[in-house]
């Protein structure tokens, strides 16, 4: 179904294509989706950069409030957040029932809007989150980074690297678990088929 709709991606946008992609979950019982989400989250853990896990633990040890904000579907992002010990996890909310499920794409400025609605006003000062350090690997998060006093970009693209250099942000390049684009696509294939193997 997703491949059939690819020619319409420009018209449907990222949110529309997510609805098309998630049609594979039609009529799957909610408890089964939840079970799959837990299994998927556990399978991802070996692929998390060890260096970032260490930073996460340092933030936790310092008593920081940890927020994971993703554009991926919330039903499995929430499980990833639990596995990693985040205090608050936000993703794209998905309402199942229809063949193409309803959703509000949690991307770009939508992350800012949701954080401002969920977090108490006391968390903010002069339009920024107090003492906030943001991490990202995507230019799609630039609106969210306006909330952060300091930023680390992880294995950034050339464009994001230039923005980071101009903004004085930290650039962090941990070793990827693949050595080439072929290796990357192989890892994605193993994740999609449930045959996870991270070297």
Task: Present the secondary structure layout.
Elements: H1 2-5, H2 9-21, H3 30-44, H4 50-61, E1 67-73, H5 74-84, E2 88-92, E3 94-95, E4 102-103, H6 109-118, E5 124-125, E6 128-129, E7 133-136, H7 142-145, E8 150-154, H8 158-167, E9 170-172, H9 181-193
Parallel strand pairs: 1-2, 7-8, 8-9
Antiparallel strand pairs: 3-4, 5-6
What is Rg?
18 Å
Overall shape: it is globular
For the biggest β-sheet, the strand order reads: 7-8-9
Biggest pleated-sheet summary: 3 strands, parallel
Total number of helical segments? 9
Quick structural summary:
It is built from nine helices and nine strands. 16% of the residues are buried. It is of the alpha/beta class.
Molecular structure report:
The chain has 199 residues and is an alpha/beta fold. It folds into two domains: 1-107, no CATH class; 120-175, 3-Layer(aba) Sandwich (Rossmann fold), CATH 3.40.50.1000. Helices cover 46% and strands 16% of the residues. Strands 7-8-9 form a three-stranded parallel sheet, covered by helices on one side. Strands 1-2 form a two-stranded parallel ribbon. It has a two-stranded antiparallel sheet with strand order 3-4. Helix 3 (30-44) packs across helix 5. The radius of gyration is 18 Å and the shape is globular. The two termini are 32 Å apart. The mean pLDDT is 88.
């Amino acid at each position: 179904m997703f491949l059939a709709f690819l020619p319409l991606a420009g018209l449907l946008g990222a949110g529309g294509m997510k609805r098309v992609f998630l049609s594979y979950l039609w009529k799957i019982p909610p408890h089964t989706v939840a079970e799959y989400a837990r299994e998927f989250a556990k399978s991802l853990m070996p692929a998390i950069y060890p260096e970032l896990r260490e930073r996460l633990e340092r933030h936790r040890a310092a008593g920081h409030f940890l927020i994971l904000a993703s554009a991926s579907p919330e039903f499995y992002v929430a499980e990833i957040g639990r596995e990693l010990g985040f205090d608050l996890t936000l993703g794209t909310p998905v309402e199942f029932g229809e063949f193409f499920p309803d959703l509000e794409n949690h991307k770009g400025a939508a992350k800012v809007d949701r954080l401002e609605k969920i977090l108490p006003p006391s968390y903010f000062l002069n339009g920024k989150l107090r003492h906030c350090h943001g991490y990202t690997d995507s230019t799609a998060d630039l609106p969210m980074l306006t909330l952060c006093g300091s930023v680390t970009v992880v294995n950034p693209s050339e464009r994001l690297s230039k923005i980071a250099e101009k903004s004085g942000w930290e650039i962090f390049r941990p070793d990827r678990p693949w050595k080439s684009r072929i290796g990357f696509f192989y890892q994605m294939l193993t994740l999609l088929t449930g045959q996870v193997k991270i070297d």
